[in-house]
Specification:
Blueprint lengths: L1 E4 L4 E5 L3 H13 L5 E6 L3 E6 L6 H13 L2 H4 L7 E7 L6 H8 L3 H10 L2 E6 L6 E4 L14 E4 L3 E5 L2 E4 L4 E3 L2 E5 L20 E6 L7 E4 L1
Parallel strand pairs: 5-13
Antiparallel strand pairs: 1-2, 2-4, 3-4, 5-14, 6-7, 6-13, 8-11, 9-10, 9-12
């Protein structure tokens, strides 16, 4: 773990994996050091903003280093909320056949593997409401497309590298498109505007088996 200065009121923590980001983010949310005002997770980093009136980079670095030196299970508990969001998907995407061919699976097996996994939102980025979900079956992990599409429709469910995600609004995109959901994931008028926030647990289900989205408190 590296702790780097980032402006006058933040430090950037670098770790080695998305899993470590989720665990570190969860630990900091559960017991934030004095003066911390905001946490922003990303693919391999967590940005920690602080109030310079109540702490300073040296004290914050000391607290973060102490956290890292604790036994892994004590220092980095799993991030998450008590909520599981179930997302109904019609697996009719234009890249489903290609994903099956490149992974050596049938289209049915691709769907089964995508719906069998337990996902968690690692971080949000790229576009408002776009959540990067970890937990993707290793056999479904493919590099991004060499030629991105200029427009991907809202609600498109896709995979790329170690992540799966859902395009919350129309945008360009280079992921492999497996299907679509009718669920609205980004609404600026709502509070909060996105359903998928860092730490949220997610499951995908085939639309015909589960006509509506559902929150499962656990």
């Amino acid at each position: 773990m590296r702790v780097l200065p980032c402006g006058s009121d933040a430090v950037l923590i670098e770790v080695d994996s998305a899993e470590q980001v989720q665990q570190l983010h969860g630990a900091l949310r559960a017991a934030p050091p004095a003066g911390v005002t905001e946490l922003v997770p990303a693919a391999r980093t967590v940005l920690v903003r602080y109030d310079p009136r109540t702490t300073d980079p040296h004290r914050l670095r000391t607290a973060l280093t102490a956290l890292a030196e604790l036994p892994r299970t004590a220092a980095l508990p799993p991030a998450g909320t008590t909520e599981t969001v179930r997302i109904p998907v019609r697996y009719d995407g234009p890249d489903l056949a290609e994903v099956a061919a490149r992974t050596g699976l049938t289209e049915r097996q691709v769907v089964e593997r995508h719906t069998a996994a337990h996902y968690r939102v690692a971080f949000c980025g790229f576009a408002p409401g776009f959540a990067y979900l970890t937990g993707l079956d290793p056999q479904l992990r493919l590099p991004r497309r060499t030629e991105p599409r200029t427009r991907v429709p809202a609600g498109t469910v896709a995979v790329a590298d170690e992540y799966t995600g859902i395009y919350p609004s129309p945008s360009p995109g280079g992921w492999h498109l497996l299907g679509t959901t009718a669920l609205t994931l980004w609404d600026p008028a709502a509070d909060p505007p996105t359903r998928l926030r860092p730490g949220t647990a997610v499951r995908f289900v085939e639309a015909q088996e589960h006509p509506g989205a559902d929150h499962d408190p656990r």
